[in-house]
Amino acid sequence: MISVTDNAKQQALKLMQEEGKDGYFIRVGVQGGGCSGLMYQLEMDNEDKDGDKAFEDNGIRIVVDKKSYLYLIGTTLDFSGGLNGKGFVFKNPNADRTCGCGESFSV
């Protein structure tokens, strides 16, 4: 399961509303790349795919493909507006190493 902080929830709902994507959910995934080997993907979606794992936390529906789920078990999705930039942040207990920007990791 992926947990969603209050900050991430507020920002996700705000973005969905601004983009006219009411009824959408957050799709989170992992793909090869980045300076640490694996990169996070996050997008708004409204279609489930075969093999997806779906769950809800803090009123937000999260959908993850089967392969990515193995890398993301126990992850917390947060939102940061601090000095290092603004955006969604993944706190992944499975990551052995992350890059300085937090957008890629290795296991």
Give the topology, please.
Blueprint (H helix, E strand, L loop, with lengths): L2 E2 L1 H13 L6 E8 L5 E8 L7 E5 L2 E5 L1 H7 L3 E5 L6 E5 L5 E2 L5 E3 L1
Look up the CATH topology: Hypothetical Protein Aq_1857, Chain: A
CATH class: Mainly Beta
Rg for CA atoms: 13 Å
Please report which band the strand proportion falls in: under 5%, 5-15%, 15-25%, 25-35%, 35-45% or over 45%: 35-45%
Head-to-tail CA distance between termini: 18 Å
Query: Could you give the order of strands across the largest sheet?
Result: 4-5-2-3-9-8
Could you say how many structural domains there are in total?
A: 1
The main β sheet shows up as: 6 strands, mixed
CATH architectural type: Sandwich
CATH superfamily: HesB-like domain
Note the overall shape. globular
Put simply, the count of helices is 2
The structure class reads alpha+beta
User: What proportion of the residues is helical, as a percent range?
Assistant: 10-25%
Report on this model:
This protein has 107 residues and is an alpha+beta fold. The protein has one domain: HesB-like domain (Hypothetical Protein Aq_1857, Chain: A, Sandwich). 19% of the residues lie in helices and 40% in strands. The chain is built from 2 helices and 9 strands. The protein has helices spanning 6-18, 66-72, and strands at residues 3-4, 25-32, 38-45, 53-57, 60-64, 76-80, 87-91, 97-98, 104-106. It has a 6-stranded mixed beta sheet. Strands 1-6-7 form a 3-stranded mixed beta sheet. The longest helix is centred in the first third of the chain and has 13 residues, at 6-18. It is globular.
